[in-house]
Design a protein that fits this description.
Shape: elongated
GO molecular function: mRNA 3'-UTR binding
Number of strands: 2
Distance between the termini: 60 Å
Largest sheet: 2 strands, antiparallel
Strand content: under 5%
Number of helices: 15
Helix content: 55-70%
InterPro entries: LRP130
GO cellular component, one term: mitochondrion
Oligomer: single chain
């Protein structure tokens, strides 16, 4: 490096391109050393906003360089304040390029460094694994979430788990999800919501033997509701007795309150409002 000229912004661009080329040739250590002497991007520039070294981190991931080496570079960039989001950046690249295993390795590195993992970080992995591996891939992802200490939330269950698993036997599905460490209380609301959205009142009724309360933020119009709910105003918290669902649905049907869109659809739309 001592033989290189003092770099300005023009020659710095040439050096950046050289660093990228070195990464793709398998010489990432040399590329990272070159990064240390690149000029600091101007204040307010796109390069500064993206974080110093982000371009090289992306190239290292895309070139499938060893993640252990890439993570070490992230540590250096974060330690001296040049790129405090370096690990998050490579996680984004891994997810965007469907590198599932690499994403999980980076997530573990983030956790080890005290960075909080959130359920939505796993959404791209759910979609990729569901497409490639089906239901098995979904449960594989859930297991990794659990291992990393991240709990499934309502949105993850409703939009990234349940659409990609079999709902033919709802009680069996609940038991399988319980085996992944979830409680019935956390499961029942999204499972029932999904079944009712599909107009599958019968299968939903099979889950009404559990002695728990559903919790939802929703408006429910009494003429379209499949479940009774008190304190419906202002989207306040309501508690719904699971056992009352079949009885209320039966009453609604006999009163001719089920419209073409289906009671379940209307109820769940209200839950999501």
């Amino acid at each position: 490096m001592k033989w290189l000229p003092i770099l300005d912004m023009e020659t710095g661009t040439i050096a950046s391109n050289l660093a990228i080329h070195l990464v793709h040739l398998g010489h990432e250590e040399a590329a990272f050393a070159l990064l240390d002497i690149l000029p600091t991007p101007p204040t307010g520039s796109k390069e500064e906003a993206a974080g110093i070294g982000s371009f090289l981190l992306r190239e290292a991931v895309v070139a499938d360089r060893p993640l252990s080496t890439v993570v070490k570079l992230c540590d250096r960039l974060m330690a001296d304040g040049r790129n405090t989001l370096a690990l998050t950046k490579i996680a984004h690249v891994c997810l965007g390029t469907e590198r599932v295993e690499s994403s999980l390795v980076v997530f573990k590195a983030m956790l080890e460094r005290g960075l909080k993992l959130r359920p939505h970080y796993f959404w791209p992995i759910f979609l990729t694994n569901a497409r490639l591996l089906g239901e098995k891939g979904v449960f594989y992802t859930i297991q990794h979430m659990t291992d990393l200490g991240v709990a499934l939330d309502f949105d993850t269950l409703a939009h990234y788990v349940l659409p990609h698993v079999s709902l033919a036997d709802p009680p069996m599905l609940v038991r399988k999800l319980q085996g992944c460490g979830m409680t019935v209380g956390a499961l029942l609301t999204p499972v029932l919501a999904t079944l009712l959205r599909q107009g599958r009142v019968g299968p939903a009724g099979k889950l009404c033997t559990y002695k728990i309360y559903l919790v939802a933020y929703m408006h429910i119009h009494t003429t379209a509701a499949a479940v009774p709910c008190e304190n419906q105003l202002d989207n306040k918290l309501c508690h719904i007795d699971v056992k009352s669902i079949p009885e209320k649905i039966s009453c609604s049907k006999s009163s001719g309150e089920e419209h073409n869109t289906g009671i379940g659809t209307q109820v769940v739309n209200n839950w999501n409002s």
